Amino acid sequence: MTTMAPSLTDANPIKAALWMCGAIVSFTLMAVSARAIQAELNSFELMFWRSLIGFALVASVALSLHKGAVWRAVRPTNPRLHLTRNMFHFAGQNLWFYGIMAIPLSQLVALEFTMPVWVAILAPLVLGETFTRRRLWVALLGFAGILIVAQPGVQPLQSGHLAGILCAIGFAMNLLLTKRIMRHDSVLCVLFWMTALQTVFGLILAQWGGFTWPSSAIWGWLALVAVTGLSAHYSLTSALGLAPATMVAPMEFFRLPIIALVGMWLYAEALDPFVFLGAAVIFAANWLNLTGTKRA
Predict the structure, then answer these.
(1) Average pLDDT over residues 179-189
(2) Cβ contact 98:163 at 8 Å
């Protein structure tokens, strides 16, 4: 079952903001942890260990809550839909981890913020929604923001820029398919099969080039990236349960200046004004999409 998003009159913006602080801290720690881990492991190995630890946590919760009826709680209504959803999420998450190593953190996060734009574009194909004129403007604004962030012709485009765009598309498909799944299955079911399937995906693909066993120096980082991966999405979901998306979405954009400062502090990454300008255009596209959802 899913909960209805509260109206503006019923919203609790202070509690929602506190949950969003938790989401921002979680996403930031996940990025820092992933950089530390990928000094030794590739993204497939990272995803294997992250998903395996996450699966242990989710399975423990399922056992404690449902005991003898665990299978009933996690049994998927449509296994094929879960498989398809997790393929997109796995691809998007791997591309995000790759982008962390390839381009400055602020650029990656700015490109990741195009995810709602891709949702607006892809929703007519996946959910059968109408492609309106407003969604066309959302797409054009979002694409303009991408050009400002990446600056093609001014600086060389890198594989990390493509990874940032493709990860946003993967996350958009994940969101749309999750929306379909949540019509029938619980959050626990979604998390159970996400961690289970992505453990298998990661293990299979990690064999390509030889599997590397983590050193003792990065076990703490692996635990942190697994925990923050779950806490980030739990915090974001909790915030959306306390306030409408039009109120929560602008809060997430505070992640950009924070991750930019972290990149400058830890990795000596320059603060690029074009990244913030492009992110502002992307934010405008997302805002246009959010404010027009009820009318579209």
Answers:
(1) 85
(2) yes
178 SS3 class: helix
Cα(27)–Cα(167) distance, integer angstroms: 15
Q: Note whether residue 194 is domain-resident.
A: yes
What's residue 135's pLDDT?
Answer: 81
Q: Is residue 57 situated within a structural domain?
A: yes
Domain contains 246: yes
Q: Which residues contact 141 (CB under 8 A, 6 or more apart)?
A: 117, 281, 282, 284, 285, 288
Strand partners, 37: none
User: Residue 77 has which token pair?
Assistant: 């209504």
Length of the chain: 296
Cα 14-20-25 angle, rounded to 5 deg: 130
For residues 84 and 65, give the distance between their C-alpha atoms in angstroms, rounded to a whole number: 27
Say which residue, 37 or 251, is predicted with more confidence.
Answer: 37
In a domain, 232, yes or no: yes
**Average pLDDT, integer, range 238-249:** 77
- Per the CB < 8 A criterion, the answer to whether 131 and 81 are in contact is no
Amino acid identity, residue 251? Answer: M
* Distances in whole angstroms, Cα of residue 40 to Cα of each of 35, 197, 204, 219, 226: 10, 23, 18, 11, 17
Q: Which two tokens stand for residue 284?
A: 């405008």
Q: What is the DSSP letter of 293?
A: T
Q: What does R_g of the chain's alpha carbons equal in angstroms?
A: 19
Instruction: Name the token pair of 50.
Output: 């992250």
Query: How many domains does the chain divide into?
Result: 1
Structural domain boundaries enclosing 255: 13-291
- How far, in Å, are 31, 78, 236, 279 from residue 229 at the CA level? 10, 24, 11, 23
Quote the CA–CA distance of 93 and 91 in Å, as a whole number. 6
How far, in Å, CA of 286 to CA of 221, rounded?
33
SS3 state at 155: strand
